[in-house]
Amino acid sequence: xxxxxxxxxxxxxxxxxxxxxxxxxxxxxxxxxxxxxxxxxxxxxxxxxxxxxxxxxxxxxxxxxxxxxxxxxxxxxxxxxxxxxxxxxxxxxxxxxxxxxxxxxxxxxxxxxxxxxxxxxxxxxxxxxxxxxxxxxxxxxxxxxxxxxxxxxxxxxxxxxxxxxxxxxxxxxxxxxxxxxxxxxxxxxxxxxxxxxxxxxxxxxxxxxxxxxxxxxxxxxxxxxxxxxxxxxxxxxxxxxxxxxxxxxxxxxxxxxxxxxxxxxxxxxxxxxxxxxxxxxxxxxxxxxxxxxxxxxxxxxxxxxxxxxxxxxxxxxxxxxxxx
Length: 324
What we know:
By secondary structure, the chain is α/β, with parallel strands linked by helices.
C-alpha cells in the first residue's frame, strides 16, 4: 500500500454541515475562473451558486444546454454554458477545445457530474456507463484542460467520489463488465473508487506545476442522482418511507443540497489545504483511512487512496483513450 501521510483529519473548525456562506466567508474569488460539471442540478447547482456569490467566473458544461440555462437563469450567463456529454469522449474533447480557445487559465475544476446505480448501459465508446461517465469522461476533460490548470495560480481539482467507493475497488481484468455479470451497485462503487484515485494520481503528477487535487464525499443528499432508483428500493435502503417521504433515518443524516456542496467548496478554496492534496475528504475535512470491515459512516478505504493503484488506473485510462 502507498497511502499519503496527509490522509488524516486536520483541525478545520467547520463541522460536518456548514453552509456555503460559512465556508466561503472572507474568500474572494473575483479573479478566479472555475468549471463545474453537472452544475445545473442538485449539489452542482448549489456549488455554482456559491462560487458565483464569491465572485468567481464559473463555466458549466451541460449535456442539455436548454435545461441548464433554465436552471441557472439569474445565476450564470448563458454564454458560460457549453455543450458536453460526459458519456461521449468526442463531445468532451469538443467542449475542451472550445473552452481552451476562450480561456488561458483555469483555477478551479469541480468534477461533480455523475450517474448512480443505473441499469446496464454503454457510453458512446462502449464503456460501462457508470465508470465511463464518472471516471473516463472526467479524465478526458481534465487531460485536455491540463495546460489551463497549470497556467492557473495554484489551481485545484475536486473529484466527487462517494461513500459508495466502499462497495469495491477497480477490477482491472474486466472494468467494463464484458464477461462478469453486471451489478449496478458494484459498478457504482468501482466508478467512485476511480474518481478518488483520479485525484490521487493527478495530484502526484502535477503538484510540482501548482495543481492540487482532492477526492470528495459530499455526504448523503437527495438529488437527481437517485433518479435511477425506484421508490421501493430507496425504502429498502432505509432512505424513504412508502409514501416517498424521507425516512427518519434519512432526515437525521442527509444534508441539504447546499450543505452537500460544502466539502467540494472547502476543498476547492480553503487556505488550510495549501500545500496539501491527493487526499479523500468528507464533512469539510480530510478523512481517516478505515478498515474494510469498519461499519462507521466516516472514513475512506485504503484501495481508494492507494498511490500504486491510482498510478495503474491512470496508465490504463491513458491507454484506453489513446486507442480510440
